[in-house]
Amino acid sequence: MSVSRPVTTTDSGIPVPSDEFSQSVGADGPLLLQDHYLIQKLAHFDRERVPERVVHAKGGGAYGVLEITEDVSQYTLADVFKRGKRTELFLRFSTVAGELGFADTVRDPRGFAVKLYTEEGNYDIVGNNTPIFFIRDPQKFPDFIHSQKRRADNHLHDNNMQWDFWTLSPETAHQVTLLMSDRGTPYSWRHMNGYGSHTFLWYNAAREKFWVKYHFKTDQGIKNFTNDEAAAAAAADLDTHIRDLHTAIKKGDHPSWTLQVQVMPFEEAADYRFNPFDLTKIWPHEDYPPIDIGTLTLNRNPQNYFAEVEQAAFEPSNLVPGVAPSPDKMLQGRLFSYPDTHRYRIGANYLQLPVNRPKNAVHSYNRDGAMRLDNPGDPVYAPNSHSGPVADPTLLAGEGYEATGEIVRSAHRLHAQDDDFVQPRALWEQVMTDVDREHLVTNIVAHASAPEVLTETKERIVDYWRNVHKDLGSRVAQGLGVNGK
Ligand code: NDP
Ligand code: HEM
């Protein structure tokens, strides 16, 4: 029995006579400019790609829900964190340095970007699977990323370039320890944690302030590939992690994460033993024990990858009442960078796309621009005497704090135990098992043994790891066959 099928149309809805043949002057003659259908098809194809993300280009995502189970109203007035609240969300996972077609299982941090469609607007927690980062000043971010991407001359990734940057930037040691451990090659996105990484400000209804860190702990358990397993997985399937997530959700096996927060009273930041706004540091659990506050579950696959995942636009500047930025310099830099890149990559009206637009009503005086879907009506300015939206100055009261000082360009203030190596040393000495340590050493040695890595760089690599721990340095020296400087 034949199924009735719609007639193909142009994008203007006009029925077309052929999907197969262009219009020509005789069967063997040249084609005609009047064949509007052909022209539209080729011209649209020529414009199918938007620029890929400058970092975190390769990824995948899913929809889900965040359910809050504990009362944290003593710390934040944010509606999204009220006990019993359920908030729809979209989560995108990614690798950092590779391009759109890159293998999912390469050694790299993984992005863990959550967009919460709250009743007070979108709240984006744009984190990674690591609680820390390589650098602590946004000035260094483009240089750091260039060192992880491709050389100018031969367009190749270059391990010498990576180690050159890392060993000349000792603040990278903590994150590089995590990256070179088996956590740098997760088995799947379902089997890793996510971290907000930065410190954020929370304030409650009484306008008391707290510093907070977010941890999304995988309920599936941590599971990693070894170096060799990750390489084998990449050879077998470039898209292992996208496939794994999509397949799990499709069969109803919905992955979940327990949301924990570490909360520091506002005043304690001033003389805490580590500078709490330094993104290369964690807050030890014994100082600020993580508190379980809810569960994030992924339960629905996107239907259209380009529309919903490729055009998803996360921005650390999307913060809702009850949450505000801390002075973490990296966070401050990111507040600018993301909306800026979205305007370039997707366009001025990226927030009107379904995956990005808030679920609550928008009352803004921003209007017009390319590809605007709907537009606010009159009045088109504020202040006005015509019942247009009015801002609420009481919102500001919560997020303000005093900041004074001379205008400088300097490193952040060192607190009592601030040192680039103390926390990676704790990881090596106190947290890692013998197997973790063995894999860390072999992963470092494998990575730094790439033919392009210069002897001079290898010597600095040994010194870098000796600073973390003398045993680690000695084992790397032995593996690389150099002694250090
Ligand atoms: P704890 O012993 O209380 O916590 C150590 C944490 O390290 C664990 O809870 C776990 O965090 C994480 N971890 C466990 N095994 C590994 C591993 N093989 N590789 C990487 N991380 C692992 O000690 P502290 O809080 O004092 O932290 C000690 C060190 O642990 C830190 O210097 C840091 O390097 C690392 N760490 C600390 C975290 C924190 O927020 N305090 C978070 C992650 C690592 P999780 O469950 O979050 O994976
Ligand atoms: C993506 C800039 C640090 C996590 C991006 C993008 C830019 C960027 C331009 C591409 C966004 C897009 O095109 O959609 C920066 C700058 C940083 C910084 C300037 C430092 C100053 C960090 C840190 C983290 C992080 C510290 C994690 C804690 C992410 C994630 C994405 C991303 C997860 C991908 C988001 C998605 O899935 O679309 N970053 N970044 N970045 N960044 Fe950063």
Structure description:
It catalyses: 2 H2O2 = O2 + 2 H2O. This is Catalase. The N and C termini lie far apart (80 Å). Helix 11 crosses helix 13 (470-480) and helix 12 (455-468) packs antiparallel against helix 13. By secondary structure, the protein is α+β, with helices and mostly antiparallel strands. Helix content is 28%, strand content 16%. The model has no long low-confidence stretch (mean pLDDT 97). The protein folds into two domains: 59-359, Catalase core domain (Catalase HpII,  Chain A, domain 1, Beta Barrel), CATH 2.40.180; 421-480, Hemocyanin, N-terminal domain (Up-down Bundle). The protein is built from 13 helices and ten strands. Strands 1, 2, 3, 4, 5, 6, 7, 8, 9 and 10 form a ten-stranded antiparallel β-sheet that branches. Strand 6 (200-203) and strand 7 form a beta hairpin. It binds NADPH dihydro-nicotinamide-adenine-dinucleotide phosphate and protoporphyrin IX containing FE.
Oligomer status: single chain
H/E topology pattern:
HEEEEHHHEEEHHEEHEHHHHHH
- CATH level-4 homologous superfamily of the largest domain: Catalase core domain
Give the N-terminus to C-terminus distance in angstroms.
80 Å
What is the approximate shape? globular
Mean pLDDT level: 97
Flag low-confidence runs: none
Number of helices: 13
Number of strands: 10
Give Rg in angstroms: 26 Å
**Helix content estimate:** 25-40%
